[in-house]
Inverse folding.
């Protein structure tokens, strides 16, 4: 037999074992990442599921964002102890603003306090800051008309940890109140996870 045929056979055998080695290594890494490395990932406090189930009170156009689960858990304790402050105001249209004729800032503050259902403590140095804006604007959003929006930010030490944004269709005090109640329910739902 010529010498080249032995080389071709040995080259084929060598290539076969190289391919088999690559497949075995790839399978081993895949199994390791799928079954063994998963325990490390799920025990991490910062890793939380990215999908959220909507509550009944939420509308289709409501938007929210959980920025820090870890801080949300501790902020819930602050609320339970009455360590929170509420502040906010109106963002009005330049002309013909009727928002403050419908609802006052004091009523909005009370909507938040009543939804939290825990009395706010005075003269505290550390607290959860709940900042809101009632945004007025006659805007046609796709096929739906809206009169304005309620935007709520939850902050710890100036850092935003949770955001909720919802539109209202009518200049109605009860609709705004329902949005605020839903905001607190959604916050409590995700802070307690």
């Amino acid at each position: 037999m010529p010498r080249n045929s032995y080389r071709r056979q040995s080259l084929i055998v060598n290539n076969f074992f190289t391919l088999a080695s690559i497949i075995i290594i790839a399978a081993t890494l895949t199994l390791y990442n799928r079954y063994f490395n998963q325990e490390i990932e799920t025990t991490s406090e910062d890793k939380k599921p990215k999908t959220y189930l909507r509550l009944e009170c939420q509308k289709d156009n409501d938007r929210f964002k959980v920025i820090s689960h870890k801080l949300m858990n501790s902020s819930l304790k602050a609320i339970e102890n009455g360590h929170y402050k509420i502040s906010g105001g109106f963002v009005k249209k330049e002309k013909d603003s009727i928002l403050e004729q419908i609802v006052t800032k004091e009523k909005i503050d009370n909507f938040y306090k009543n939804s939290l259902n825990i009395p706010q403590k005075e003269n505290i140095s550390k607290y959860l800051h709940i900042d809101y804006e009632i945004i007025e604007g006659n805007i046609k959003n796709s096929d739906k008309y809206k009169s304005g929006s309620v935007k709520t930010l939850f902050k710890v030490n100036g850092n935003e940890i949770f955001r909720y944004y919802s539109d209202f269709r009518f200049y109605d005090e009860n609709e705004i109140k329902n949005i605020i109640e839903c905001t607190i329910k959604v916050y409590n739902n995700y802070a307690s996870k």
